[in-house]
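Sequence design from tokenized structure. All designs in this work follow the same two-part layout: the structure record, then the generated sequence. An example of the structure record is given first.
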């Protein structure tokens, strides 16, 4: 009932409390009268979430699992019925038995798991589907997967060297996102060998990466993932929302919608704020995959053509966000020259950094920043 009421009222956040420097909760300033009704809807959503039993999380849920703290790619073998997985095209595909194995201290460690297909476009189009992997605490606790529950596995789309490069390029964008905000999914690159359990034969070895499961991310951010759609500009915290919008503009990503939860999530934090998170960047201009095409509604010829699709926030938030991106510029560019960056082709690195150069020219020119970003925001 609460969910239905919240949907009808279209969620707008009124901050009920704030946490001071000593961690004590105190009343926030009274919201403006114009937002009273929608603030009520936000409180209904929060109340409904608090009424639900929270999932049991690892003891150190405020931290990233050790698996994601390491940066070097690790070799892993996924064994499953590949044909059956490739035939699972429905949105509600069942979990299938699988194992993930790796070598540690000279010994092979085999971890039981379940996997199921996910996604929309990739599921129907790619040579191998993206997966959701599910571990049990008992099976994972003495392995590298300790503290991980249900991560996504982003696999190759086409079984080609170019497909490998697309995976590496998208992985880099997750790394950039992590530099900008903790409200982003931690990734881990792997060199994955895919073995068909029906035949025992290896199909291919390609780069892939895991991303942190949503509940773990929300726990780190002292909050809970919301499943309610309809969040608009007035419902989300301004600064983190602007960070999401400008990050999407940096990488040339238009394939997301916060309101519809399309390649996006929203976290209801314990302090009353709602923060958006985006994911899935293979259709971005920074990756520039051959299969990626822009939405016809945007009337652009290529995914390399940037369009700002972030929500509107108070104008004084933008200089702070631009300052963040400028402060992180050297660290962002350095990602393309470290051990993982060197896995990319030289021409790909050069093209990507030139693409980022254009972004920095835009945000550091007051006129173009206003015309291309501030004036284009979604109201």
């Amino acid at each position: 009932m609460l969910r239905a009421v919240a949907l009808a009222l279209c969620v707008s956040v009124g901050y009920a409390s704030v946490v001071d420097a000593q961690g004590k909760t105190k009343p926030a300033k009274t919201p403006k009268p114009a937002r009273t009704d929608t603030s009520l809807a936000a409180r209904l959503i929060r109340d409904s979430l608090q009424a639900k039993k929270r999932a049991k999380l690892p003891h150190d849920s405020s931290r990233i699992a050790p698996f994601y703290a390491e940066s070097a790619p690790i070799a892993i073998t996924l064994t499953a019925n590949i044909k059956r997985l490739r035939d699972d095209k429905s949105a509600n595909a069942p979990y299938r038995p699988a194992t993930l194995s790796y070598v540690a201290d000279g010994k092979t460690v085999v971890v039981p798991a379940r996997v199921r297909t996910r996604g929309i476009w990739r599921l129907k189009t790619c040579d191998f589907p993206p997966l959701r992997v599910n571990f049990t605490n008992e099976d994972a606790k003495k392995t590298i997967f300790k503290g991980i529950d249900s991560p996504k596995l982003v696999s190759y789309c086409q079984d080609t060297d170019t497909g490998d490069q697309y995976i590496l390029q998208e992985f880099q964008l997750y790394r950039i996102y992590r530099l900008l905000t903790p409200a982003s999914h931690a990734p881990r690159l792997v060199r994955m060998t895919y073995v068909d359990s029906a035949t025992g034969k290896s199909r291919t070895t390609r780069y892939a990466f895991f991303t942190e499961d949503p509940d773990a991310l929300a726990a780190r951010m002292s909050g809970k993932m919301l499943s309610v759609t309809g969040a608009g500009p007035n419902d989300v915290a301004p600064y983190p929302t602007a960070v999401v919008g400008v990050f999407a503009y940096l990488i040339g990503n238009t394939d997301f919608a916060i309101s519809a939860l399309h390649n996006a999530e929203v976290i209801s934090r314990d302090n009353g704020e709602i923060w958006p998170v985006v994911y899935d960047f293979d259709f971005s201009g920074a990756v520039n995959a051959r299969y990626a095409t822009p939405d016809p509604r945007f009337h652009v010829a290529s995914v390399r053509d940037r369009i700002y699709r972030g929500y509107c926030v108070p104008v004084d938030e933008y200089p702070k966000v631009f300052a963040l991106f400028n402060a992180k510029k050297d660290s962002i560019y350095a990602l393309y020259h470290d051990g993982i960056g060197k896995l990319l082709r030289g021409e790909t690195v050069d093209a990507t950094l030139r693409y980022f150069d254009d972004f920095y020219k835009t945000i550091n020119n007051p006129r173009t920043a206003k015309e291309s970003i501030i004036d284009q925001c979604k109201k």
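Residues 66-215 form one domain. We note this feature because it recurs in several other targets discussed in the main text.
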